Amino acid sequence: MAQDLSEKELLRMEVEQLKKEVMNPRDLISKTGKEIKDYVEAQAGTDPLLKGIPEDKNPFKEKGACVTS
């Protein structure tokens, strides 16, 4: 799609996008970083990547051994 547009149209689209982005409210990283850290720490007890998946609920557990003769 972008290949079919002229350079002027591409620049106009970029300016429109930048106008939208400048209107987004921004928060300080010192505030949002703490919120993210608190959330991650609160959810750590239920995180399967940290805690692991019980063998009986693991959908990727091998059903049986492969036997070749």
From TrEMBL:
- Which cellular components does GO assign to this protein? heterotrimeric G-protein complex
Where does the UniProt entry say this protein principally localizes?
A: membrane
Per UniProt, the keywords (alphabetical) are:
Cell membrane, Lipoprotein, Membrane, Methylation, Prenylation, Transducer
- The G protein gamma domain sits at 1-69
What SMART domains does the entry give?
G_gamma, GGL
Q: Which parts of the sequence are annotated with region: Disordered?
A: 50-69
Does the keyword field hold Aminoacyl-tRNA synthetase?
no
Q: Which compartment or compartments is the protein found in?
A: Cell membrane
Q: Name one GO biological process term.
A: G protein-coupled receptor signaling pathway
SUPFAM superfamilies found in the cross-reference section = Transducin (heterotrimeric G protein), gamma chain (SSF48670)
* PROSITE patterns referenced in this protein's UniProt entry, alphabetically: G_PROTEIN_GAMMA
Pfam families for the chain: G-gamma
- Where in the sequence does UniProt note compositional bias of the Basic and acidic residues kind? 53-69
- What this chain does, per the record? Guanine nucleotide-binding proteins (G proteins) are involved as a modulator or transducer in various transmembrane signaling systems. The beta and gamma chains are required for the GTPase activity, for replacement of GDP by GTP, and for G protein-effector interaction.
User: What PANTHER family would the database entry show?
Assistant: GUANINE NUCLEOTIDE-BINDING PROTEIN GAMMA SUBUNIT
The Swiss-Prot or TrEMBL record describes its family as follows: Belongs to the G protein gamma family.
Name this protein carries in UniProt:
Guanine nucleotide-binding protein subunit gamma
Organism phylogeny: Eukaryota, Metazoa, Chordata, Craniata, Vertebrata
